[in-house]
Amino acid sequence: EIARRRAELAREEERLQKRRAEVDHRQERLEQREQALNKRQSALDRRTNDIEKMVSQQEEELQRIAQMSTEDARAVLL
Q1: Are residues 40 and 48 in contact, defined by beta-carbon separation less than 8 angstroms?
Q2: Based on C-alpha coordinates, what's the Rg of the chain?
Q3: 32 sits in which H/E element
Q4: Is the pTM of this model over 0.85?
Q5: Contact criterion met (CB below 8 Å) for 32 and 40
Q6: Per-residue pLDDT for 9 more than 90?
Q7: Separation CA 22–CA 28 (nearest Å)
Q8: Which sign does the torsion angle of CA 39, 40, 45, 48 carry?
Q9: In Å, what is the CA distance from 5 to each residue of 2, 9, 11, 14, 18?
């Protein structure tokens, strides 16, 4: 009976070790995925910021041009 119980405990221990290894591996993959997503998010945030700056500059330029007289606009173009 004791030998059978020890064998059963050994099998259970082995099963738990495998399960822990699987969980650890899954956690590593999730952490790598999270890092990749954070990197992509940072790149998207920078790109969004750049685009917002460009739009703001274009709006300022359009406002400046809209306030010009026809003669001033011709002078700038020529």
Answers
A1: no
A2: 33
A3: helix 2-66
A4: no
A5: no
A6: yes
A7: 10
A8: positive
A9: 5, 6, 10, 14, 20
